[in-house]
Design a protein that fits this description.
Length: about 300
């Protein structure tokens, strides 16, 4: 399939073509409300292995398994009362729950990196939901980019990062959220926040009725926990208020640069623009990247989490 032919606009025929590739064990890229995902049947070890191969992803880093609804999630993971409250409030949506894996889940061990837990999400985006409905399969789908590099928020980002390695990209325009899902692990003593994201701590606490507690052992148990992640191929300087020689400055609010996350200082707008801005910075002639400070509150905490990993 020629490069331009690999990008198919979201349509019934595009979903059918993507589903046929998935049935043959070939991963496809698809739009979600967070970032573009590289999807494969989570029940097939060979299909999941292709995700790792295409991304160059470390085998100990687990994948998020996407399902159509809570009923499908409950066949894979064990939802206690806290998890059900969170699911009822935030699914479909950008929340991933790390739950105990059911013995009869039929999920490939490679998708969970051999862990006794599974990361589950019910997405809200029409393209991913159409693909889940068409295939009837749980779909493992990390971000559709080379491992450790900038996450893709457009089909063009996917094509630039993965090239001919991905057979089909189901294009439904730029992603709305532009930031990966919040990941939380509910337990009897509270919620462990494993990755900040669009759903903030205050929202989680209000619904769960439990506090957020320390994330735990420090071992990788969910996507996005590696120290160096989402990284462009250039050094990144954070909390920059002015451009230094050789830098491409990404501004925010009053800090004006070569590019901007949000001139109005809106964290939601900044989250949606974050990865696209990093892609443009990486493609620039500048040797280094600088990013203006973003308040570490609400979704700003998730933005800063991604930026610290990009700079690591």
């Amino acid at each position: 399939m020629a490069s331009n032919d690999r990008i198919r606009p979201f349509s019934a025929s595009g979903v059918t073509a993507a589903a046929a590739l998935l049935a043959a064990g070939e991963p496809v890229a698809v739009a979600t409300e967070t970032v573009y995902g590289l999807a494969a049947d989570a029940r097939s070890g060979a299909a999941v292995a292709r995700i790792y191969e295409i991304k160059g992803r470390p085998s100990f880093n687990p994948l998020i398994v996407h399902v159509l609804d809570v009923a499908a999630a409950s066949r894979i993971g064990r939802l206690d009362s806290t998890a059900r409250r969170l699911a009822d409030s935030f699914w479909p949506g950008p929340l991933t729950l790390v739950l105990s894996l059911r013995e009869d889940a039929r999920i490939a061990p490679l998708a969970t990196a051999g862990l006794p837990t599974v990361a589950l999400r019910v997405p809200a985006h029409r393209a991913m939901r159409a693909l889940l409905s068409e295939t009837g399969a749980p779909l493992a789908a990390p971000s559709a980019n080379r491992s450790g590099h900038i996450s893709p928020t457009t089909a063009a980002h996917v094509a630039a990062s993965l090239g001919e390695r991905v057979a089909l990209i189901l294009d439904d325009g730029p992603t709305a959220r532009g930031l990966e899902s919040t990941i939380a692990a509910p337990g009897p003593g509270g919620l462990r926040l494993l990755r900040p994201g669009p759903i903030g701590v205050a929202e989680l606490v209000e619904v769960a009725g439990l506090p957020v507690v320390a994330s735990g052992s420090g071992k990788v148990e969910a996507p996005g926990q590696l120290l160096s992640h989402y990284a462009p191929g250039k050094p990144v300087r954070l909390n920059a208020t002015e451009r230094r020689a050789g830098e491409w400055l990404i501004g925010f609010g009053p800090v004006v640069g070569d590019d901007g996350l949000s001139a109005a200082g809106d964290p939601l707008e900044a989250a949606a623009n974050l990865f696209a801005a990093l892609h443009r910075a990486e493609a620039s002639v500048a040797e280094r990247i600088a990013v203006a400070p973003v308040p570490d509150e609400g979704v700003g905490a998730a933005i800063n989490d991604r930026l610290r990993r990009a700079a690591a």
